[in-house]
Amino acid sequence: MALEALFHPQCVAIDLHAGSKKQLLGELTQLAKLCPSVAQTSLTPRDLLSAVMDRERLGTTGIGSGVAIPHARIEGLTQMSAAFARLETPIDYEAVDDRPVDLAVMLLAPQDAGAEHLRALARVSRLLRREETRARLRAAPTAESLYSLLSDAQAGEAA
Q1: Neighbouring residues of 7: CB distance < 8 A, sequence distance ≥ 6
Q2: Among this protein's residues, is 117 annotated catalytic?
Q3: What is each CA distance from 141 to 55, 82, 148, in whole angstroms?
């Protein structure tokens, strides 16, 4: 799946307020519910949060450099989707490098999307491991500009 199919303007938030990892995951599930492929399901934010928390118990999804990519495969979802948030204030996320997180992508995949889920996770990770990309996302003035940066970065990834 091409990354541009994951993100939608309504699933991108700027200066999201979260005081803890659990609160961030809750806010991201609320945001993810606005994504078209999730909104068309009967899944609730609570369903999404439960699946993401189950995955998080296996090990942190804080990949370092202020980035977290919580993810889960979810029964009842038919398409992959992602919600992106830049946090108002970085939070402790138990990341692999012990740095606080201020950029987060919640990646949601259908239950049977094994290899596709892993490929999308790898692409999102590669995108956010680039220092220049992270700097531009942190400096974006609006949610629309964040989405535009994600779209531009995705086009560069595909090229």
Answers
A1: 82, 84, 147, 150, 151, 154
A2: no
A3: 32, 21, 11
Query: DSSP characters for 78-104?
Result: -S-EEEEEEEEEEE----TT-PPEEEE
When pLDDT is cut at 50, 70 and 90, the band that residue 90 belongs to is: very high
What does the domain layout of the chain look like in residue ranges? 3-158
Pair 117, 137: CB distance under 8 Å: no
Active-site choice (8, 17, 71, 117): 71
Examine the pLDDT at 157 and tell me if it is beyond 70.
Answer: no
* Paired tokens of 7: 């993100």
CATH code for 3-158? Answer: 3.40.930.10
Quick one: 2 exposed, middle or buried, by C-beta within 10 A (0-12, 13-18, 19+)? exposed
Which CA distances in Å does 62 have to 21, 40, 95? 10, 29, 4
In whole angstroms, give the CA distance from residue 140 to residue 82. 19
